[in-house]
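notes to self, project folder thing:

trying the whole complex as one job this time. last attempt i did each chain seperately and stitching them together was a nightmare. two parts in total, labels are on each line so i dont mix them up again. if this works i'll redo the older ones the same way
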Amino acid sequence: MTPPPVAGGSYVALIGLGSNQGDRPLFIRKALTALAHSTRCRLVAISPLYQSDPVGNPNDPNPYLNAVCRLETDLSARQTLDRLLDIEKSLGRVRRERWGPRTIDLDLLFVGDKIVEESGLTLPHPLATQRSFVLEPATQIDPEFRDPISDSPLHEIRNSLRTRGDWTPLQRLDFPMPQELTSRQEIRQFIQTSREKGQTVGFVPTMGYLHEGHASLLRQARLENDLVILSIYINPLQFGPEEDFEQYPRDKKKDFELARETGTDAILTLSEEPMYSPEHATYVEVKELTDHLCGASRPGHFRGVTTIVTKLFGLVSPDRAYFGQKDAQQAIILRRMTIDLEMNTKIRILPIVRESDGLALSSRNVYLDEKQRQEALGLHRSLLRAQELVASGERCTETIDSAVRDILNTCDGAQIDYIGLVDSQTLQPVERLERETLLALAVHFGRTRLIDNTLLTPLA
Amino acid sequence: MTPPPVAGGSYVALIGLGSNQGDRPLFIRKALTALAHSTRCRLVAISPLYQSDPVGNPNDPNPYLNAVCRLETDLSARQTLDRLLDIEKSLGRVRRERWGPRTIDLDLLFVGDKIVEESGLTLPHPLATQRSFVLEPATQIDPEFRDPISDSPLHEIRNSLRTRGDWTPLQRLDFPMPQELTSRQEIRQFIQTSREKGQTVGFVPTMGYLHEGHASLLRQARLENDLVILSIYINPLQFGPEEDFEQYPRDKKKDFELARETGTDAILTLSEEPMYSPEHATYVEVKELTDHLCGASRPGHFRGVTTIVTKLFGLVSPDRAYFGQKDAQQAIILRRMTIDLEMNTKIRILPIVRESDGLALSSRNVYLDEKQRQEALGLHRSLLRAQELVASGERCTETIDSAVRDILNTCDGAQIDYIGLVDSQTLQPVERLERETLLALAVHFGRTRLIDNTLLTPLA
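result (full assembly):
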């Protein structure tokens, strides 16, 4: 996947992070959190953590922990550097001795293709193409990035460095396996301990069988919180009687591995206790917003979702919870719910993640046979077609609906459940595109129901 | 009101509390909290706080803060004394110097009519009948308690002491006026600050027009928590279209005064912001339990209650919330809701508070004219009659229902809404009394609807 294009006037900056003192992963994480929250900056990628032997300073035996991140920003190079110095300072770094121990070390490696030689600011950073502990993580996130001096992509420079052999051994530091929380008592204790330390909690509720879409939520949660909790629970309450509750795919081992890779701290499975007691009688319902689209096709579905999410929020008390834009209606309903019920959880919605051919990732994609998988690409094609129409000035939703329908009708075996063109806030049907409008699709391929959507924004 | 009778084998103990160092009201409050949570003890009354000049010690210029509380316990006098010493110790008191400053001083003044003279334990306490800073607060909570030595009630001893003039001036220390929380931001900030200090929060949600029933909730909350928050909000969502939302009585000034007297820290009024936004669409519903009794007579009422309570819990994040047994069905529904939605709030239900003639306190009693007020006593009479029948062996709920109905039918102007004999957990109608059964009544007097109830427990 390519990251979204950088908006006009923005640069890609690669930033090196290092720490050789104290709780090193925590310092790197805190610096990344600060960058992620920095205005006019967008943190789009983070490398794994690497450990390297200390370089240069014979008096300092501590190994360094290193990472590189990719930032998009419309700040100037100088302003970006000042941000980095501010973050170092806020994390207790004193730039005094050349070889002093470093709680955190932030280096501006590259800012686009800029070549700068000013007081205190050299671009590219003099060590950016010299050190494997920079090049190794940088290559992981942006292998094709070109060093503006040699005009070579990073992966080539990294390889040539490796052959020259002047690098210190690297050790990739993996995150530890997340702790499984199997009972309410374990959950509450985990949360209680984190609260007492003043830690923030990011939460990603899922039904398991994780894919890159879930991973994107976990990575964002990792950026923005001290603790990341994932829940895996296939919630019977949100399945209709004819739906796929029984067959819903499961792969606990793979889920745990993906969670570990993204730096998840704990996984709530509640495997030792029933989620709903036999006396359970309480339901959370959002009216109106649930009448349309999937709400109309799947009666009771959203009541199941809002009820389980309320329960999970009760257990986890998250500061932020992460959901995908793929379930667009769910996202709007959950935002409404948290506001209406005064919940202390911010709902964060992240973009749809697609396969390289455009198919939106979904745990249910495993149900598709090869032919269906191919035909299902029509969903994304029809969304692109709608985008195209809107870009060329079309405002009539009936026309857009027809164009989408025409494409879906060419997909062999596709049965359209709905094509919705609705207000992106109220979900009320829209006749003319005057503001942001949600185009949402649900299409059956055999017994498999796929959904996809896009936001249509008429430009003035 | 008389406190409930002391169970067999229990004693009434009067305990003096004093502090002349540090945050004195906090130390006294903490000691009271420890007593309230002590096993085999029931804290039933606390005097106001009094301030007295230091007595005896010329080197200590700090005034003392004093209070007396009444404990019911089946511990021995020696065991009770040990509890007090433990609490002193846990609050940092070191019993070393006779005149040293005292963060907290707990004295066992009286244990029933016991007269004891042992090593370290003298009952009554030698100063119990000598010091006005003991007798004044003790008289406030138990004026008829008799000193076992003189066999005189405390108020007489206090008066004779006063005439002898050997007491230091007393100053009654009132609690400060509670802080009004008028916006969400104010509420969240207040809660945030308390959380950072690790304080526990007790919450009493009301519709205002407070009476002694509410006061009993606030006092219990004061005992069990570091902070007490009251909310006053007349929730339109729980009133039917034909009900008394518009006329519901209001008296903000009196409410604030009562809240102050009970030691409430803050009052949530949210007067600057709407409680429900125009887009509000989320409702919390408890099924089944809401089908009976008031749920049947007042459709939508409990949905309104569970929704507003969820919102208020979201705003306040209380550790404990206090409700009256008078709304028996509401209590059961809210317990169910907090369990089902994994809320981190413990629901505490306190006994019905009645006027001396038996009428259950209710804000709606002001609607009654003098004649109706008199006829309304039939509710309590009919409950007592049912108790009597059960005590004499009656198990058939039809018979009990008839007896209750007969009494209510003698009340001029009474229109029975329902007489319910239901399982006290499930609220399902019961035919034979085999375990704890709720007898609940709703009766109209003119436009005023009164409810009352009692628990019937068949003894083997």
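what i see at first glance: The CA atoms of residues 38 and 83 of chain B lie 8 Å apart.
need to look closer tmrw
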